[in-house]
Specification:
The chain has ten helices and eight strands. The chain is of the alpha/beta class and 223 residues long. The protein folds into two domains: 146 residues, 3-Layer(aba) Sandwich (Rossmann fold), CATH 3.40.50; 63 residues, DNA polymerase, domain 1 (Orthogonal Bundle). The strands form two sheets. The protein has a six-stranded parallel beta sheet, sandwiched between helices. Strands 2-3 form a two-stranded antiparallel sheet. β4, α6 and β5 form a beta-alpha-beta unit. α5 runs parallel beside α10. It holds the Pfam family HAD_2. This is Pyrophosphatase PpaX.
């Protein structure tokens, strides 16, 4: 069956939010735990829901820590966020080819939308599933399946693209084709151990992969 629905993770996949996330955590730990935390330590938690991380790290001040983290992100969002190379061009190409695109992220909906709008790519997406939409987050399949339900698609027609083990596991748990991007800030072995179906080195390569898979499919609708 042809791939018609492409689900994208946001942080680290479409947008480079690495510095924003790292500095937000460092600021939070500095304020509430009075300690300095390395970039490497923080990167290991990439893809994990914020509350899960802070419930583990800031057990006695979770709500205060969450507020501190989110306030820092709001104040430094434009300064520390960038868009990955080739993202705009690839999204435009996929949109023009008729694919239905969605964002599936553990980021709050308002923040995710702000990021998409900031770089002028919000209009390419037919659906956004964020942290506000469900209590079940990646690697649970629920967010991906919610996106497909809104798009009107099935797992057999879908592909999920992400940069973390949570994305790959979410795709597999949902019965969706999984694609890992090699520009992840995480060491590759962390997502490769979950055996993604494909790994791409650029957004251009992702577009070519999708077209190639559909060209091989007997129901590719002439793509």
């Amino acid at each position: 069956m042809a791939i018609q629905y492409i689900l994208f993770d946001l942080d680290g996949t479409l947008l480079d939010t690495n510095n924003l996330i790292i500095e937000s955590f460092q600021h939070t730990y500095r304020k509430h735990l009075k300690k300095e935390v390395s970039k490497e330590y923080i990167v290991k938690t990439f893809g994990e829901i914020l509350r899960t991380t802070l419930e583990r790290e800031c057990k006695d001040c979770v709500e205060e820590a969450i507020h501190t983290y989110r306030t820092f992100q709001i104040e430094n969002f434009d300064r520390l966020i960038t868009i990955h190379v080739g993202v705009k061009e690839a999204l435009k190409a996929l949109h023009c080819k008729g694919y239905k695109l969605a964002v599936v992220t553990s980021r709050l909906n308002e923040s995710a939308t702000k990021g998409l709008r900031h770089f002028g790519i919000e209009g390419y997406f037919d659906c956004l599933i964020g942290a506000d939409d469900t209590k079940h987050h990646k690697p649970n399949p629920t967010p991906a399946l919610m996106a497909l339900e809104r798009l009107g698609g099935t797992p057999e027609e879908a592909m999920m693209v992400g940069d973390s083990p949570f994305d790959i596991q979410c795709a597999k748990n949902a019965g969706i084709l999984s694609v890992a991007v090699s520009w992840s800030a995480l060491p590759s072995h962390l997502y490769m151990q979950h055996s993604p179906d494909y790994v791409v080195d650029s957004m251009e390569e992702l577009v070519a992969l999708i077209d190639r898979l559909n060209h091989k499919s007997p129901s590719s609708m002439g793509r």
